[in-house]
Amino acid sequence: FSSSSSSRTVKKLPNVFQKKKILVYGNFKNKKTLIRYLIACNAVTVENPLLFDVNVTHVIATKHFWTKEFDDFIKNNKNVKIVSTHWAWDSINNFKLQSDKPYLLSR
Predict the structure, then answer these.
(1) Has residue 3 got a pLDDT over 60?
(2) Which of 5, 6, 14, 56 could be stapled to 95 by a disulfide with Cβ–Cβ 3.0 to 4.6 Å?
């Protein structure tokens, strides 16, 4: 150890998901890791599908996710984007929010 103070460069995490409220829906591989990265990149995350929130901007899901409750949520939130996990990972890996269009999922 050195008694002198050393200067460390601390990188700021990117605000990739600033102003995004994201519901992470269903069970899939690396879900907990994805949620940690979303939060680190400034997303507000919702994990409980029973807490569907009209302020949710995106739902991250897999292809086999649709339920009756989800239909009701969509009816109450016409602006929500339902995207694959690839949208989140690509945004994180590129340090920039990707367009959701190529990642949209549908019923």
Answers:
(1) no
(2) 14
E strand or H helix that includes residue 86? helix 85-94
Across the range 5-22, mean pLDDT stands at 78
User: Phi and psi of 73, rounded to 5°?
Assistant: -60, -45
Tell me the C-alpha distance between 40 and 22, whole Å: 13
CA 71 to chain centre: 20
pTM above 0.85, yes or no: no
**Amino acid residing at 58:** H
Cβ-proximal residues to 62 (8 Å cutoff; 6+ apart), any chain: 26, 28, 84, 85
Q: Which amino acid is at 32?
A: K
Rounded to 10°, the helix 31-40/85-94 angle is 40
Q: Rounded distance, CA 90 to CA 95, Å?
A: 8
